[in-house]
Amino acid sequence: MRITPWQLFCMFTTLEISMSIWLTVSPSIEIARQDAWISLAVAGVIGLFVTLILTRVSQRHASLTLVEFAQKLLGKWIGKLIAGLYIAVWFSVSADILRIFSLFIKQFLFHDTPVWVIAMLMVAAMVYINFAGGIEAIARFSELAGPSLLLGIMITFALNISNLHPDLLLPIYADSGAIPILKGSLVNASFLGESMMIMMLTPFIANSRKMLKPALLAICIPSMIAVVTAIMVIMTFGTNIGSTLIFPYFSMVRFINYLEFIQNMDVWIMCIWIFSVFVKLSIYLFINSYGTAQLLGVKNWRIMIGFVAAVIFAISLVPANVIGILDFAKFVWIIYIFPIFIVGLPIILLLVSLIRGQSPPAREQQNS
Amino acid sequence: MRKISAIVWLTALAFITGCWDRNEINDYAFWIGTGLDLSKDGKLKKSAQIAVPAGFRTSGGGGGSGKRANIVISATGSSIVDLEQQVQDKLPRKIFLGHRRSIFIGESLARKGITDIMDQFTRNTDTRMRTDIFVVNNGDGRDILEVKSPFNQFSAIVAVEQDRFCRLGDTALRDVLLDVGRDGIRPSMPMVEISAKNGKEKDEIIEVKSVAIFNRDLQMVGEVSGRESLEMFWVKGVLKNQFIMEETGEGTISLYESNLKKTVRTEIVGNRLKAYIKLEGVGRVLENNTNIDLSASSERRPLERKLNDIKAKQVEATIKKVQQQYGQDVFGIGEEFHREHPRQWKGLRNKWDRLFPAVEVAVSVKLKIQYTGGIGKRIPGIGDRT
């Protein structure tokens, strides 16, 4: 299984966009009011910094996954513990995303279909692509999904221009101030931190020395899109409606009515967007299966797919309602997972790796 | 092995998809317009204009069978969705709200307050926010739904297309929701009315010529109508074009003004709040009943100045009227203060209702005559009074 840098870029862009336009805009507007777009720009900078660290750590151990290099750096048992915690985090995130995705589809398209059926169909597709080709198949699929998602979003932005009230963006900065802007940025910054899955993927990247640029670009472009989305949502709905809508981007797309015949574009966008959620969940399934297999010392990681998929599906049925799932992002992801797993531990790993003095070129030669 | 599992999955998919939400298009009752009124005992009365496809086809084909393409169903209850169930009980098909174009609120309900009905419009994902919303002047929402316009099967759609005064069209609900809950602006809504001159007009014609003014609690407190409502929307910044007729003192002159713009500067001097409103537009002369030769710049320029002065006085009078009679900032002048003086605004925002009537407003108008129409001078002999 080999991924090219371009495929890496497509994969990460797809999975970052799907979250940042979907869940992060309205919490940011709620905190930073009409300056939410500044928040999201700040979030992009934080995301770039975090991804830089993550990529550096993984480049130093390009032929190993997180599970392996954590054990190598910190000793067998502490390493296993940390890797296990990371995998637990990824299990919980993927279950959370799976559930909120199913609820979203149920709310907008299928009112009477049980949630578990929608989730089951998604899991079936995820299992299939992982069995069929693993990460390489996902990468190829995202080559298709990523550009079409970008194109679709650009089209909706262009068509929405006639609905905009630029006045709603003013006054800049005076109403919120630095603290709310920084607070508002944490939401998207932490979501951009999902790039930590790169630590599991480096062994599959064909040329791991060239992976920094696509990884950083894949943070840049989604952040820019999030900034534009926030500006558009604020100019279309104002801060009051914008902060209360749970999925403001989709409400905005529903609002488009161009020349009386281009309307109801939400169905198209939702279709492309389902692709991108699929990419995201499939990658999670892959790293969870692969990581669990390595952790337990199972040689053939494909055996784990069915087991992991079943666990993710089961966890996804636990939360009671949509607010419970959104609370996961608010009270677990931002407060615990972001500082510990996305910022703290990678820095520690990087420091340990530097102190131990692994020479990166030697490892890379081994890899190539 | 892989093939077999794929086949099993595909078969399973065929059985488990689409069973719960399968709905044929002819199982749906399309809901086109909503009327909301206050019933005599103080409850909420909801009327629905529902498309009847069979009638639609005959009249669309030019048959003109006289059958209505829609029916109006009413129900009385305490909340909107409670009423939705009652309307559903009267229909053989599943109601579908996605095509609703407009909402008509009876004046008595509007005056009582509409906070209780607004939540549903943004929460219910079956509805679209792109909806027009009207207050029915001196009447009930149901009356408007009963109108049979010769132009369209559905009076709810006619009203949207006729909403030309503010040019808000179907974004009116969004615009109302934008103004709700902001400190420096109060909501306003177009009004629709049936004011028939004769019996035939009564069932066929609706008029959109006034604007309802709401206060902070979403209670209607008054209305401005005709020219004043246009001026109000011009100052608010949503009007795109209008006809203007002015009496110059030596005859009338009429213009079509487009590309309307407004810019507002604000100033806080001690305790006094000042707003300078500049209105601009590009005009085309449509009618000239004066002796002014529009083709001569020496005569046209003074005319422009005169028109501007007259218009500025009229707009000032309209603003003064709203300030004194209703005291609600439907123009959004408070938001202009907010934008220009964000720090001082924090002290003003909570008492804006008290401050707004005392804001000193100065209006300047700049209407440019760019075209004199098809002729320059008047044709000698037609109305030429000299």
UniProtKB/TrEMBL annotation, chain B:
Which organism encodes this protein? Answer: Paenibacillus glycinis
Per UniProt, what is the membrane topology? Answer: Lipid-anchor
Keyword vocabulary terms for this entry: Germination, Lipoprotein, Membrane, Palmitate, Signal
Name its cellular compartments: Membrane
Segments forming domain Spore germination protein N-terminal: 21-193
What name goes with this protein?
Answer: Ger(X)C family spore germination protein
Q: Which Pfam families match?
A: Spore_GerAC, Spore_GerAC_N
Q: Where is the Spore germination GerAC-like C-terminal domain?
A: 211-373
Family that this chain belongs to: Belongs to the GerABKC lipoprotein family.
Q: Give yes or no: UniProt keyword Signal.
A: yes
